Amino acid sequence: MAFFCVVYFPSALSPLMSFFFFFCHCHPKPIVFTPYESQECDARLQFVSHRMVGSAGIAAFGRVRVLFRHNGVSEVVEVGDAVQLDSAIALLQSFPTVPKSYTALCTPTLAEVHGEVTSVASTVASGVLRQSKTVDFAWLEVETNSDVVLKKVLSAFPVHAKTVELICSGENTTELVEIFPTCGYIWINVAAKVSVGKVENQSEVGTTAVSMVAFEHFLLTVHRGSLVGYEDMGAYMELFVKSPASLGCPVPTVICSLVSGFVKEYRKELLPLLVDVDNVNEMVLEIQPSQCDQLDLLRRIDDLRHALSRVQASYFAKERVVQRLLLPFVRRTFMTSEPGVAARYQRLLSGILLSIERLRKGRDVLNMSSMSLVSGVSMRLLQHCYWMDYLNNVLTMMTLVSMPVCIIPGLFTMNVRVPFEGSEGHGPFYAVAIVTAAFFFFGMSYPAYLYLKFKSPDALVPVSQP
Q1: Its pTM surpasses 0.85
Q2: Is residue 85 in a domain?
Q3: 353 alpha carbon, distance to own chain's centre
């Protein structure tokens, strides 16, 4: 009969060895050991969780959390340094549900994959049977940027060398689902949003790969960086593990909840992006004929096109992961054999497809905005050509008025006699000057009126006043 023992060291001896967990399989009752005495206690089997997280340890080590359920009791253990990590690994390895070596995964036959009625009925019956009873399981979650910690955790469990290499690799960005039937686990790699810092009091968000190594009753998740919404997701998962919804198939249910949470974070980016696309589409017809406005709009359209492509590619990757989880071969393994889990994946896939369709429509709207901008620029060129033609007509009219005016003063420069050459006084001069000036101003009035009447082009569509 298994029992749980706690070794307690006073805090004066070592703050890193305050609590140590281990199991013993030889004594029928729990025993509590201290450095000074040994005493038997008539108590039932209990699991104790302690918060062992230090601020300095988190910065250098990362965060490691253990969620387990044994004999109907669910507990959470947080680890903050390497010594406590060894204790947590030893605790997990003491569970009978945690694999110690490679075990063959129960995979369907070719007839079962093609969907024989007997196979489907047996699968549904086994799912209902698992759902009706409580299953022990354990979940180890590792968040660290240290390759040493990653290799230490992965080497403690029967994980294939290829999986270890890809998880520890910095280029682990491909979202995939791989089955290792000889090793007894399914590897799921999903991209999730991670907080990489703050710029101007706003959180800057990046992406990281979350690797989930799923055994039938044990789940190992590894990721680098702090996930967006990690605290809320962690609190939700702690409550979810203790709820009756995860009694029958805890590992598939937890994975489904994690994948749904990652997709939900990407959906938060979809609505603001589509709003920006609509705003740009409205701004196209309101741009001024200046080059600055046109360049600004071109830059906005280019940024939105790249953002749409990035988000759409992430949704395509999520769609591929969910579709692989719904393959007939995978649905007859422990991963998706539960009807409730398969139904949740179906709803998740429908939501992803709807989001992809909305992104496609947003991309079409952005393409129409680009075409409208090109048409607007062409219209601006036509307006400018019209302005040049209009100005040329005005100058032609001014030239027609100026040529006769220049002939009258030119008569006085000719070496000929004029009728009033012998006249005394300035009367003839003033008369000629007044007639010339009157003819000039009267002839220039209409071209000047046309020139001043012209209005420069404004926005293609006037801005609506509030």
Answers
A1: no
A2: yes
A3: 16
